[in-house]
Each structure stands twice: as C-alpha cells, then as structure tokens.
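Submission checklist for the structure archive. All mandatory fields must be present; incomplete records are returned to the submitter.

[x] Identifier: Aldehyde dehydrogenase 12
[x] Organism: Hyphodiscus hymeniophilus
[x] Residue count: 488
[x] Sequence attached
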Amino acid sequence: SIEKAKSYLGAIRGASQITISNYVGEAFISKTADSYIDSFEPKTGNLYCKVPLTSAQDVDAAISCAKDAFKTWSKTARAVRSRYLQRIASLIEENRELFAVWESIDQGKTLARARIEVDRAISNFSYFSTFILHEETKARMIDGVALTYEHRSPAGVFALISPWNMPLYLLTWKIAPCIAFGCTAVAKPSEVTSMSAFLLCEVLRQAELPSGVVNIVFGNGAVTGSALVKSQKIAGVSFTGGTATGIQIRKDTATDVYKHLSLELGGKNPTLVFDDVDLENAIATAAMAAFENQGEICLCGSRIYVQNTIYEQFVEKFTEYVSGNYQVGKTVGAIVSHPHFQKIVSYLELAKNENATFNLGSIPDKEPKAGYWMDPVILTNLSTDSAVVREEIFGPVVTIAPFTSEEQAIELANDNPNGLASVLLTKDGARMRRVGEQIEAGLVWVNCWLVRELGTPFGGMKNSGTGREGGEFSRDFFTVVRTLHIPS
Ligand code: NAD
C-alpha cells in the first residue's frame, strides 16, 4: 500500500505529501513549479502524487548547471567516474525493495516485474562502470610515415528523455552511459511515472555525485521536454518513447546539425511460429512476449503469425495457456493511466466493429471504477489492413493470423512501418538464419524473448528509430572523435 511504501521512504525530501521536486546541482529544489501535474495510482485510480511542470526557464537553469559541471566531469579520470557509477549501483541495490514497491505503485506493474527492472537498472550502472575501464585507443601506422590515432572526448550536456513503461530501467539506461563517458545530463522522466526517478535523485545525492553531473527535471513533453530538446546548450538528445514524439524531436532539432540524436521509438512486433516447434515451449515464449508487463513493453510481440498446419491447435492451446497463466492482479498488473486504458479500449471497440473473434477477453468499461485493470485479449479473424494489426496498441492485446509459407511469413512480418523487434520460433537451424536475416527489425529473438547483453546493439529499423544503444554504440553516441595524424 502507499502508506507502507511511504514509511519506506524515510529521508526522501518532500515525500510526506508526495510532491515531487526537481534535482538540480546537488539539491532538491523545494519550490519547483507554479503548476503541477496530477499523478494517479493505476491499481486504484486514486490521485497520489504531484509532479512539477518545470518551465522552460527552469529547464535552462538546469542545463546551465550541467554545462558548468561538464568542465570538471569531462576531465575526471575514468577510474573515478567508474567508482561513482559503482556507488550508485550499490545504493540502488541497498534500496532494491523500496524502488520496486514504488515502481509497482507508480506504473501499475506487478512487484515481481518491478524487481526485475530494478535489477536491470543496477546492471546499467555496473556494466558501464567497468566498460570504461577497458577502453583502448585505436592507433595505426601509415607506412612508417605517420602515426594516426583516434582521440575521443565527451560530447557535452545531453537531454535524456524516457517513457512510462519501464521508468527506472530506461532512464538509467541513458544516465549510466552518459556520465560514464564523461558527459553531464539533464534527464526528464515521463510525467506519468516520475516516482522512481525522484528516488534516484536521493541516491545520486547519497552517492555524492558531483554537483550538476546529473540533473533531473520533471514535467510534460509540451513544456519541459520541448524546452530541453530545443536548447542550444545541449550536445544531443537520447530519447525513448513514441514514434510521433520522435518525429517531433527530429523536427525540433533539424537545424541543430551538431546534435547527436538517438531515437528509440515504438514497435508492432511480429512473432513467427513454424510448425516444427515444440508447441508447449513456443506457446510459453509467445505468451510472455505478448503479455509481459501488460503488453506495455516496446519489444512485446503483439502480432503472432502461425503456420497454417498448426494454426487452429495453436490458437486453442495458446488461449488455454494465457487464461491459466496471465491473471489480472496476479501476473498481470494495471494499465498505466486512464487515457492509455481508454486508448486500448478504443482499439478493442474497433476490433469488435470489424467482426474480430475475441478468443479471450472482452471490452472493459471505458470508465473503470477502481483502477485500470484489463484482462488479456486474444484476437483472430482481422484483416491485415486493420489498424488493430498495424498500429502499436501497447497493452495486453495480441492478434493471431495464419501463414502458409516461409516467404509469406517474412512478408507479413515486414508488412508494417515499424521495425523494432521480432520473435522467430522454429527448430530448423537453417531457417533461423534464412528467415532471421530477412526480418526488418533491430532485434530478432530466436526461440527466446527479451534476452539482453548490454554490449549488443539495441535499437530499431524503419519507424522504430535511429541510432543504437549499448556498449560501444553508447560510447559512440556520447562522445566525439577526432583523428590525429603525427608524422615521424
Ligand atoms: P511519449 O512519446 O508520449 O513520451 C515519452 C517521453 O517524451 C515522455 O517523457 C514525454 O514527456 C516526452 N515528450 C513528449 N513530447 C515531447 C516533446 N515534444 N519534446 C520532448 N519530449 C517530449 O511516449 P510514452 O507514451 O511515454 O511511451 C510509450 C512509447 O514509448 C511507445 O510507443 C513505446 O513503444 C515506446 N518505447 C520505445 C522503447 C524503445 O526502446 N524503442 C522502449 C520503451 C518504450
């Protein structure tokens, strides 16, 4: 409960009224804003927290603070930076349960899911804390005449903007590499889920991270995010969120050629099931890919295509499996917000109007009485042109359709403007490569889902974004490189 979680909060400033405050320099700003955004608890629908709507002027002050800090932080030895990251990782670990409880309250996700994401946030800091220690400078000799080498330096202050579906995990996936590579940050979490970022501010303070290295400002996209992105003082934007917002950020930075842009956007990811699979395993993987975190993961497989020879059997057994294993309040959390709940319901209404078959689930009331709960929905008999099949719904809704050949499976998988992730379920080793290498998606999971190694490139094709994050890809994003030529 919130009361119990509140008692956990202890020393967090301002938390007794749960009014969030910005963290700029190394201080919580007591009066952050003239206006606040209401934040509701997804599991009850109750208002429980006030999020400041940070003005453009206050955003500018935070950026100036980060710019000042950059002068020293960019020259701080990597071993020292590494120790700060380790300290932050340890402090999150010490407060793992506190973070998980609040993430679950704030986002609606199950506590079990929240714990996984807190652990991943810890990994983000520990991974980059060691990555920077093993970096080598690339040098070459040109015919004994000249030595050339690549000199990297931190690029500057970055705007780090994250969405509401995995709040702490995605925000730290940006903060950790940014400061590891010597840059400073002004971060803005989603106004819908600000609590874990607020807790992180306290961790940064306790870690004694030098003033201004990470500043966290709260607010919406139209006022706060937009001011951050448009600032001429930043070196770039690392953004994770919806495709429409990504396009807006591209437009808002179009004339600032120097800005580094990483856009991790939406997905409508296919899961391909071939008839040689072990059906039980395939069903468990496809279900997890569809319904983990209520389907509110950009990587969720929300379009399942099954080879016609096993199609009917798959639909029946998949429905049985999901109804037995994905139960609201136990393994399925609440939808993040009322507007998002209504958006999902609209897609279900559209599916009904298009005469889709609801194999599981039904259309909930658009005005839920207590919390934004929704049973998993499994839809069949929709046209490939349907918006339900083409557009990202970002909820516990999956569509299933048959295919007859490998070529058709690839065609269906690629028949979408997005290209973030995909799942390929088959035992045929040659097909894994043949099909896997033709799917237009930044991530192809073969007989698995959500397996991650933080050094591998992460990002999407087509409308799912530009740029890659992870290991050396994050380094390339947060640094600038100059090549020196020194003759003998
Ligand atoms: P959103 O685009 O509405 O908001 C994301 C963030 O951008 C928020 O912090 C928001 O305040 C801010 N923002 C909004 N307008 C802005 C503007 N004009 N300028 C600057 N900032 C602005 O997305 P959301 O609804 O919070 O998140 C859901 C979306 O995120 C889904 O589409 C999902 O697929 C995507 N997502 C992608 C990934 C990925 O890695 N590719 C990961 C998670 C979520």
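[x] Structure attached
Curator remark: Residues 161-165, 170, 188, 190-191, 220-221, 225-226, 229, 240-242, 245, 248-249, 264-267, 298, 392, 394, 420, 460, 465 surround nicotinamide-adenine-dinucleotide (CB under 6 Å). The chain has 16 helices and 22 strands.
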